[in-house]
Amino acid sequence: MQLNKRASLEISMQSIVIVVLALIILGLGLVLIRGLFKNNQNDIDEVTLQKISFPNTEIYVDKGTSTLLTIGIMNTQDKDLNYRMKFIAVSDPNGNLFGNPDALGIWFKYSQPTGPQGYVLRPGENDVRDIRLEMPTALGILAGTYSFRFEVTDLEAFGIDAIYAQKDFFVIVR
After folding, report:
1. Positive or negative CA dihedral for 94, 100, 101, 103?
2. pLDDT at 26 (0 to 100)
3. Distance (Å, rounded) from C-alpha 123 to C-alpha 82?
4. 104 Cβ contact list (under 8 Å, min separation 6)
């Protein structure tokens, strides 16, 4: 009985090709997965280093409706942060300085601590605050883009350093 050496050589060549292809596909898969996790880690690190996490820089709202904004504040200092939040109107849809600062109390509804200490955040901790943006149907409110600044004020600092963090954003009224 004589063995067919050609068939046995053919099987071993196919096995080598399959193993090589499997290693190439495995290597490509590992490179792809590593790249995905590396990009996600960079995004996580970037968000973690931010003092304020704001939902969006453009907020769309129709007259007579409201929307909920969830804002995150992180204490990146090595001491307690005693803070307050405030909104500052910058300009109206015509590009003029905002003419009615009292409207901020009507548009943005959020709780503020009653004591002089403000909210307290320990080092490395974060806080999430919900703010309701209500758009009244008053005649004086123009459709268009309003520019605002959200500020977190450090109550323990003095002078220009009192602003702990700030974020500019737009409210687009439809």
Report:
1. negative
2. 87
3. 11
4. 87, 88, 89
How is residue 174 annotated by DSSP?
-
State both tokens at 63.
Answer: 């007259």
80, 141 contact by CB (below 8 A):
no
What does the CA dihedral 104, 106, 110, 114 come to, rounded to 10 degrees? 80
The residue among 118 and 1 whose pLDDT is bigger is: 118
Report the SS3 class of residue 57: coil
- What residue type is assigned to position 101 of the chain? P
Q: What is the mean pLDDT of residues 12-38?
A: 82
Cα of first residue to Cα of last residue in the chain, in angstroms, is: 90
| Nearest of 135, 155, 154, 151 to residue 143 by alpha carbon | 135
Would you state the structure tokens that stand for residue 9, as one six-digit string?
Answer: 């050589």
DSSP H or E run through 48? helix 5-49
